Amino acid sequence: MTAELIYGKELAATIRRELKQDAAALREQDILPHLTVVLVGDDPASRSYVRGKEKASAEIGISSDLIELPSSTTQTELLDLIQRLNLDAKVNGILVQLPLPAHIDEQAVINSIDPEKDVDGFHPANVGKMMLGEDTYYPCTPYGIIQMLKSKDVEIAGKTAVIVGRSNIVGKPIGQLLLNEHATVIHTHSRTPDLRHFTKQADILIVAVGREHMIKAEDIREGAIVIDVGVNRNAAGKLTGDVDFENTKEVASIITPVPGGVGPMTITMLMLNTIKAARRQAAAVV
């Protein structure tokens, strides 16, 4: 058995076509969805992500701008900027690209963003709504994973979902979103003793730890669905995941490749959240 692949790029393209229509419909109502991205410093990976967001915005019809700040920017200066953006009615979504320089408290910055403009879905108010199962802006990568599973008609309810990783960006929120879909969720991480004992129980296995090929074929049970969120660069400079893809694809029923799997969905969900923000803010004004 060779696993069926979920290519995030293909699903993202389908969703982006729908978002393009949504953006056009909003413009006909004189509503121009607008995303402001703030980049502090010159981290090459962050700059690459920002370019991807600018390209996606242009493709869909979302107005966007980039505010670039030097790495010497103080926390107070950054918070003052965010407050100005919070008060700017033309700005629907605010995204501060992480990571930030070490002297800036990332959580303080996230907390300062208006929850209605928090299109990353990281503000505690939005995290709380997610925990309660309320409609909100969901974190982009976890939300993209849910869409990927549904695109393959995966029945999530009643399944055992095992999460390897506990970050605030992926591990914790994907567990909650799966719980909201009525899965039985087991959270594990790098310090979990006998990790294989848990991963072998998974109907759905989500791996997001940032360790090359941490999960092997023998760590999963036959027929499991494997979502690999990890992006690592191996000794040859090639991008690879947290899962040993070549061997695991012979055991899993569905698996995501790296690259080309989860990654393309993250920016697409950001675009979805931005259009949702524009729609909600326009309705609030009326």
Automatic annotation (TrEMBL):
NADP(+) binds at residues 165-167, 231. Gene3D superfamilies: Leucine Dehydrogenase, chain A, domain 1, NAD(P)-binding Rossmann-like Domain. InterPro entries: Aminoacid_DH-like_N_sf (IPR046346), NAD(P)-bd_dom_sf (IPR036291), THF_DH/CycHdrlase (IPR000672), THF_DH/CycHdrlase_cat_dom (IPR020630), THF_DH/CycHdrlase_CS (IPR020867), THF_DH/CycHdrlase_NAD-bd_dom (IPR020631). Residues 139-281 form the Tetrahydrofolate dehydrogenase/cyclohydrolase NAD(P)-binding domain. The keyword Nucleotide-binding does not apply. It catalyses: (6R)-5,10-methenyltetrahydrofolate + H2O = (6R)-10-formyltetrahydrofolate + H(+); (6R)-5,10-methylene-5,6,7,8-tetrahydrofolate + NADP(+) = (6R)-5,10-methenyltetrahydrofolate + NADPH. Residues 6-120 form the Tetrahydrofolate dehydrogenase/cyclohydrolase catalytic domain. Homodimer. This is Bifunctional protein FolD. The gene is folD.
